[in-house]
Amino acid sequence: MTVxxxxxxxxxxxxLLWGAPEEPRTGRSGPKPGLSVDAIVSAxxxxxxxxxxxxxxxxxxxxxxxxxxxxxxxxxPGKAELLDLMHDRALAELPAGPPTxxxxxxxxxxxxxxxxxxxxxHPWVLQVSQxxxxxxxxxxxxxxxxxxxxxxxxLPPRRLRGAVAALWQFVRGLAAAxxxxxxxxxxxxxTDEDWWIARSTRLAELAPDFTDRFPLLTGLQSAPADTPGSxxxxxxxxxxxxxxxxxxxGIAAAR
Length: 255
Description:
- The protein has helices spanning 10-17, 37-51, 58-65, 79-91, 104-121, 137-150, 157-188, 192-206, 210-213, 215-222, 232-253; strands spanning 3-4, 128-129.
- The chain has 2 domains: 3-91, Arc Repressor Mutant, subunit A (Orthogonal Bundle), CATH 1.10.10.60; 104-253, Tetracycline Repressor, domain 2 (Orthogonal Bundle).
- It has a two-stranded parallel ribbon.
- It is flat and about 65 Å long.
- The two termini are 38 Å apart.
- Helix 1 (10-17) packs parallel to helix 4 (79-91), helix 5 packs antiparallel against helix 6 and helix 7 runs antiparallel to helix 11 (232-253).
- It is mainly α.
- It is 62% helix and 2% strand.
């Protein structure tokens, strides 16, 4: 399921994201003690982390806080605004500020690893479309951190934009693959091993000339891995390291 950010009221959503003082709202009573925007956002993240995006609703968040959904609307206008706040709060876990490494390649690698880990801690974030950004301070800070890390590479603006897009989408894509692998067995009730055994056996029956028809694919699959272990997550980690190194090589060559 794909969810688009920024579907709520732009004025209220941006005010909440950037911590602007609340404006008076006529026709509503004041906030009840014991609730806050921060508490509601934390509860929303807890629901999404535990049960996924599909389970997120104002009612579910209210129940986690021991309140009704209606009690939340004094603080957050609705689910759309809450999702923007949750997305930005998740990205706020990323380190901000100057790069911790002097070498630009190492600095970008640190950034990529941190973003990848953040996505896997909160896989529901991967379901928030990047077509329209949230425009929250944490989201923009993550972009600023990457730009700072890339600055010593000396790319012209056009290539810099391409490098940023490629790096962000690469990290997001690999994180999504890992998150989906983790969820597959629980959602389908079939382990990865059983899934592959059933299909590889049947494929051998249907395509006995598989090796002749797909020699390059067969050779790649039979080649030994650079790191021990054949679990899907091991493959994803190796793909992450190798793919990132290739991207960084390309950035270096584009200077």
